[in-house]
Amino acid sequence: MKLYYFPPSPNTRKVHAVAIHLQLPIDLKLVDLEKREQHNPEFIQLNPTGRTPVLQDGDFILWESTAIMQYLASQVPNSLWSENPQIRADIMRW
User: Fold this and answer.
1) Per residue in 23-46, pLDDT tens?
2) What contacts 8, CB < 8 A, 6 or more positions away?
3) What is the pTM for the complete model shown?
């Protein structure tokens, strides 16, 4: 999996923290917002909003940090994302 990220971004940091916590191998790809790299056509193809973070897992592309964290937590059994749909719904509510 590749994580397109900008280190100062809080949303990027929380996604990266979840990946580290779950010990998921993530290939980090810097998108330097200060150099306006988020406007490069290659990045806009990944995320039309031009924002980080973006997760690429094979052909699957996902943006929005909360969705990415939920996806990552679904990859391996863990205490962050319950198998119980009611608990997951309660997590999503907040």
Assistant:
1) 999 999 999 999 999 999 999 999
2) none
3) 0.89
Helix (H) / strand (E) element for 28: namely strand 27-30
Cα 17–chain centre separation: 10
CATH number of the structural domain spanning residue 35: 3.40.30.10
Beta-carbon neighbour count of residue 39 at 10 Å?
A: 11
Over residues 7-19, mean pLDDT:
96
Q: How many domains does the chain have?
A: 1
pLDDT value at position 81?
Answer: 85
Integer Cα distance of 8 and 23 in angstroms: 21
Residue 44 is part of which domain span?
A: 2-93
